[in-house]
């Protein structure tokens, strides 16, 4: 890893721990093990380092988003459900296990109340942007399930909120598989309760199972 890349990575790590405002060029240089002059040879100031971090995050996030670039008009109901399930779990894994993304998220959370740019980025990547994407799928699923009277925006919020709660609970823990299992249970329960989704079983092709994880019961049809 070259010096410029090390500066970028170490700066983000410091920003994630102390916030952007709480870190100086001197501290970044010390963490990298170079002089302040070496920092300035690659970046004119701290803002330039931050701008490079944001650009890198955009590249990384776009690569992740490309996996879920689909036209809902081309999906049937089961394909749509699979897409939203995969998207939800992928978001959890990405923001907790990708070191760059995880540190970027921590930095935004620290700075969101004193830096409007950080607040906007947090909205884009982890709150409003995710809700908007989810709302698109839920609206179509509600239509397919004859639940067009539901408040799609509220449903999208109710669907996404547990993702962030579980993400916060497990960010610094090793038991990520348990977190993924909880997410899967939440997804099944949400779709079953709110959108009347019935999961196919491996038995009779005409048999379906409605799963209600709140009562831990399965009703066969």
TrEMBL record:
Q: Which PROSITE patterns match?
A: HTH_TETR_2
* Residue span(s) of domain HTH tetR-type: 1-61
Where is the chain membrane-spanning? none
Concerning InterPro entries, the annotation shows: Homeodomain-like_sf, HTH-type_Tx_Regulator, HTH_TetR
Record keywords: DNA-binding
Pfam families linked to this entry = TetR_N (PF00440)
- Drop me one GO molecular function for this one: DNA binding
Known DNA-binding region: 24-43
Alphabetized PANTHER family for the sequence: ACREF/ENVCD OPERON REPRESSOR-RELATED (PTHR43479), ACREF_ENVCD OPERON REPRESSOR-RELATED (PTHR43479:SF11)
Name of the protein this chain belongs to: Transcriptional regulator, TetR family
């Amino acid at each position: 890893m070259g010096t410029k890349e090390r500066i970028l990575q170490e700066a983000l790590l410091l920003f994630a721990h102390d916030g952007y405002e709480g870190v100086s060029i001197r501290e970044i240089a010390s963490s990298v093990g170079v002089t302040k002059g070496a920092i300035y040879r690659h970046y004119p100031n701290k803002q330039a380092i931050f701008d490079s971090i944001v650009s890198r995050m955009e590249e990384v996030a776009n690569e992740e988003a490309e996996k879920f670039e689909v036209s809902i008009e081309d999906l049937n109901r089961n394909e749509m459900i699979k897409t939203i399930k995969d998207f939800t779990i992928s978001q959890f894994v990405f923001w907790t296990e990708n070191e760059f993304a995880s540190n970027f998220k921590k930095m935004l959370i620290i700075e969101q109340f004193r830096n409007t740019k950080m607040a906007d980025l947090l909205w884009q990547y982890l709150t409003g942007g995710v809700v908007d994407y989810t709302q698109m799928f839920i609206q179509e699923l509600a239509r397919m399930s004859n639940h067009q009277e539901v408040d799609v925006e509220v449903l999208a919020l109710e669907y996404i909120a547990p993702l962030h709660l579980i993400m916060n609970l497990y960010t610094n823990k090793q038991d990520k598989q348990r977190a993924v299992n909880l997410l899967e249970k939440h997804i099944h329960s949400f779709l079953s309760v709110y959108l009347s989704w019935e999961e196919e079983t491996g038995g009779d092709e005409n048999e379906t199972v409605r799963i209600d994880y709140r009562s831990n019961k399965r009703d066969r049809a």
